[in-house]
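JOB MANIFEST
job_type = single_chain_structure
chain_count = 1
residues = 78
[input]
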Amino acid sequence: MNEEPLTYETAVRRLEEIIKALDSEQVGLRETLDLTAEGKRLIEFAAGELEAVGKGLEELRLDDLIERLEAAGREPGS
């Protein structure tokens, strides 16, 4: 893998490369093992990134809800 910083997008691109290499049946047994191990690490990284984004979205929704509730409590007649 090149020295590009690891992001969700770079992990997905590398996973696509690994899948193509494995599908090509041009890799040996040892390289298959190495690529599979790298793929597992990338999948775990990508899953963690997706989870973090999901949590961030949940927090944003909660913050928005709290803001709306506070605004409703400040409205006249509430």
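[summary]
The first helix runs from residue 8 to 24.
The chain has one domain: 8-74.
exit_status = 0
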